[in-house]
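Review this fold:
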Amino acid sequence: MNLMIDDNHHELLAQIATMYYEQEMTQNAIAVQLGLSRVKVYRLLKQARAEQVAQIVITWPIQRDSELETLLKQTFGLKDALVLKTSTQNEMTTLQRLGQLGARYLERTLTDGSTMAVCLGRTSYETIHAISPTFQAKVRVAQAVGSVPFTMQQLDSATLARELAQRLGGEALYLTSPLMGDSVEASEVIRNQRDIKRTLMAAHQADVALTGVGNLDPAISGFSQAGFISAEELTTLTAAGAVGDMAGQIYTLDGELYPCEYNQRVIGITLEALKKIPLTIAIAMGQTKAKAILGGLRTGVIDVLCIDDLAAGEVMRSVVN
């Protein structure tokens, strides 16, 4: 939502959206009642959607694979596993359904007065956007890692923290810093700034954490898209044993923190801190991420894994092999 929208215009958008979506009035009828042109009503309805004044949630039928869920819980000692049965080859549809599965779990988990740490990522975005508009919990939402460039704002942890707090009627705490400092020394200076230290402390003391799992493919990695690590550097890292990242922290297939300067430059919560949070939920999708997911599970960070059946099957095959 655009925080600069003034209250009067916001009220007009809400009024028109209510008339159209809830009272089922036609655009012509709204135009006549409010003394506006039909074209103006159309544009305002479009703006209401864009500004998230009016939010439409499409609920897909969700089926789960209980056999894979049991295998994942037993193999990795998880508190819970949510495995989505995929019924389509459409990646976007699967991602949205996975987000809904994660959102329903969050709605059963979040309680008034709790604190939630949020990391950046596409799966986190889909999960937050799938939370029901009718669900409310006065939750304090802490941005757990620094921000990415404007071109990736939709998936940025600051954006996600703000949107989640708005949806739940809670408070958002921001990390006013980039995801990664220019040097280890610069990152340490940033972490010690008062407001950033306050948000990081809140993230460390969170009751629940939400994270995605990233692989290090240079073509799709958030690190390369944001300009923090070059494609050539990522290729070098993967050749030396790095397989994925959570909260910007790069790790190996064995679940060990990969020894590199990049991990020390990240402004955000560490894997060790994530381990201490009572409930860390990871949302991950895709067979191509199987090694990253397996390494992530072996870090001991993940308490609840929300995953599609194709990725889950590949993870289990990797364990057997």
